[in-house]
Amino acid sequence: MRIAIAGGHGQVARHLSRALTARGDVPVALVRQLQHVGDVVADGAEAVVLDLERANARDVAEAIAGADAVVFAAGAGPGSGIARKDTVDRAAAGLLADGAEQAGVRRYVLVSSMGAGAPPPPGTDEVFAAYLVAKRAAELDLRTRDLDWTILRPGGLTDDEPTGSVRLDDSVPRGSVPRADVAAVLVALLHEPRTAGLALELIGGVVPTDAAVAAVTERAD
């Protein structure tokens, strides 16, 4: 499979590129800055320089032409303010969907966040609340589209070594998960088309990744 990854220089995205390459797939990393090209090429990805905060749908469609799937793994990142939570975590996700529709790429996997399935509770830090609002809006927009979408909501992300085992379901308790395990789940989701239409939460667990994806697929059937 040829898979275009928005936010291709992000930590989860780089794990994803390496995992896809190891499987024999072709990752295409969409990166904002020219200096990021060397890093993602070293991960095994093809690189396309594209700033989703400045691009239009035609730009995106050209960048992802020929892909079998797209993954939105971009984020404004820590330290960014409320405005960029909206322009990246919401608007850029929608723009990738616009581009996918134009390019005829039906498969879309959105990396969202645990907590994005509902409005932020009262008392939530205003920047984090803006992040959750943006992720929720991106999810709601994606659900309206005629795409084969899957939404993945990881818990707290860590740089711990991957375990190869997770807890994946419609709803799971709050917890954390290594970024490399998130990437492994994304690979499994991309290769299981029957996960289209599912919104799933993810934390560390004891079920091997492929078995966890198979289980949610069987329940959906």
Automatic annotation (TrEMBL):
Taxonomic superkingdom: Bacteria
Pfam families associated with the record: NAD_binding_10
InterPro entries linked to this entry: NAD(P)-bd_dom, NAD(P)-bd_dom_sf
Domain annotation NAD(P)-binding: ranges: 7-193
Coiled coil: none
Alphabetical list of PANTHER family matching this protein: FLAVIN REDUCTASE-RELATED, UPF0659 PROTEIN YMR090W
Descriptive protein name: Uncharacterized protein YbjT (DUF2867 family)
